[in-house]
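Hey,
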Amino acid sequence: MKFFALIFLLPTLAFATPSTPTAYIQANVDAVITILAETQGDSPAMREAQARRLSTLVDDFFDSEELSRRALGQYWRLFSPEQRVEFEGLFLKLIKQVYLRKSIAYNNEQVTVDQEIMKSDEWAEVFSTIVGANVRTKLIYYLKKRDSAWKVYDVSVENVSFVKNYRSQFQGILQNNPPAHLISILREKTNE
């Protein structure tokens, strides 16, 4: 279920930049549902095409720098600027591989946006619920405004933070290894 829920973390290429966090999330959710609801058969080629379309959307949805910085926690400062850029790209690629390919199991679920909490002019939380025949899953999107546009830097699915989950894995590796080692692991995982 968590893999399916994560599909709703994904973005859309909005024609106009939504002005509020709620509008941003709603536009993205609507676009994802549109892609998943298209009925072009259930062939592997169709699923691959859906995954590619969703994958291109991820790049604009997440604030990859903030996502990466938070996932690395205290170890972020140990990465050189070049390593940070490479890590961001590899981490986003890993997210796409792990979740997109496993989550294209759409079964007419709908997402309701329940509440928006503005923490400041640049930070917000949007609470939503995935509702389906046998599904009721709570999501919280954490957003940051960067360059006048909202971007997601973390998502909590049933009170499990996406960033905290990866942070514990990355910190376990970085406690005894340099940043280059983690980057090497991510290179291997994303090239499988």
